[in-house]
Specification:
By secondary structure, the protein is an alpha+beta fold. The protein is built from three helices and ten strands. A hairpin with a 6-residue loop joins β1 and β2.
């Protein structure tokens, strides 16, 4: 009985192999500006091409790749909408769970080493309509110097959304 409860605890705390494998494929393809996992083109936005992602994490509503065509930014970002609804408590649960899963994931790196995301979760505050956690990928590859997993929980006109963004983000200190 104790072993079963112990195993269930770790199963609920650690990401599934499917989550780890999918996250690894997405993160590794950042080197290619997400082109290898890019699916069909969706409705573009001004200065941005939008594509369906061929790789998805378990659980999101949908996953997209945004390809920017701006003077200062020609990169791409990968986004999953992890929750979209009007239940604040469920949004918090998904936000915390997404932060935990990304933080606990182990990325099988190109050289067979293990990489991970590091950082602390910003706790949601009931008086504020958003929360934002930035987790930086801990690797020595210079292409990933500013690569982050950004988990956002925000209130909008249709209720609450939780996003997981994987992208390059310059530190304010570098500008």
């Amino acid at each position: 009985m104790i072993l079963f409860a112990h195993a269930q605890f770790y199963k609920s705390v650690l990401p599934s192999p499917q989550f780890n494998d999918s996250l690894t494929k997405i993160v590794i393809d950042f080197r290619n500006n997400f082109k290898k996992i890019q699916g069909k083109e969706l409705t573009p936005q001004i200065g941005i091409e939008v594509y369906q992602s061929q790789i998805s994490l378990p659980g999101p509503v949908h996953c997209t790749i945004y390809r920017y065509h701006l003077k200062l930014d020609t990169t791409a970002s990968w986004q999953a909408i992890m929750y979209n609804g009007d239940d604040y408590e469920e949004a918090i649960k998904v936000y915390k769970s997404t932060c935990r899963l990304v933080n606990k994931s182990r990325i099988k790196w190109i050289d067979r080493s293990i990489a991970s995301f590091i950082g602390n979760m910003e706790k949601p505050d009931g008086n504020i309509s958003f929360a934002n956690t930035m987790l930086q990928l801990n690797v020595s590859d210079p292409r990933y110097k500013n690569f982050y997993a950004e988990i956002e929980m925000e209130s909008g006109s249709n209720g609450w959304e939780v996003h997981l963004n994987l992208h390059n983000k310059k530190d304010d200190m570098e500008e």
